[in-house]
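Minutes, project check-in
Item: structure for the 102-residue chain
Input as provided by the requester:
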Amino acid sequence: MDILKLAEHWRRAGNDVAVATVIDTWGSAPRPVGSHFVINGDGRFEGSVSGGCVEGEVVTEALDVIRTGQSRVLEFGVADETAWRVGLSCGGRIRILVEPLV
């Protein structure tokens, strides 16, 4: 099933849903711009924005996006403050838009 169709299916079934989309990359990011990752309010997820490097952090942020209804842009890379706790194993940098599906 297409990842965005799955998100819509979850939404129609009464679940709150957030969609994470890769909006920018630099260097050797593992997923291309336009890649999607969907998360429902129960913490279930499908898809990928980084090949497993930052998905856990994106789930945490997505659950907050669902709770607040406020979209946000996340940035991960080897040169920012998150590099010591969450980073891209292949190097590079990635920006991800996380927004509630309404």
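Outcome recorded: The beta strands are 17-26, 36-40, 45-47, 72-77, 93-101.
No further action items on this chain.
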